[in-house]
Amino acid sequence: MPNIKELTDLTTQVRRDILRMVHKVNSGHPGGSLGCAEFFVSLYQNLMETKDGFDMNGTDEDLFFLSNGHISPVYYSVLARSGYFPVEELNTFRIIDSRLQGHPTTHEGLPGIRIASGSLGQGMSVAIGAAQAKKLNNDDHLVYSLHGDGELQEGQNWEAIMYASAKKVDNLISTVDLNQQQIDGSTDDVLPMGSIRAKFEAFGWTVLDIEKGNDIEAVLEGMKEAKSLTGKGKPVCVLLHTVMGNGVDFMMHTHAWHGKAPNDEQLKEGLSQNPETLGDY
Amino acid sequence: MKTYTYTEKKDTRSGFGAGLAELGRTNPNVVALCADLIGSLKMDEFIKENPERFFQIGIAEANMMGIAAGLTIGGKIPFTGTFANFSTGRVYDQIRQSIAYSGKNVKICASHAGLTLGEDGATHQILEDIGLMKMLPGMVVINPCDYNQTKAATIAIAEYDGPVYLRFGRPSVPIFTPADQKFEIGKAIQFTEGTDVTIVATGHLVWEALEASKALNEAGISAEVINIHTIKPLDDKAILDSVAKTGCIVTAEEHNYLGGLGESVARVLAQHHPTPQEFVATNDTFGESGTPVQLMDKYGLNSAAIQKAVKKVLKRK
Question: CB count, 10 Å around CB of A49?
Answer without folding.
Answer: 9
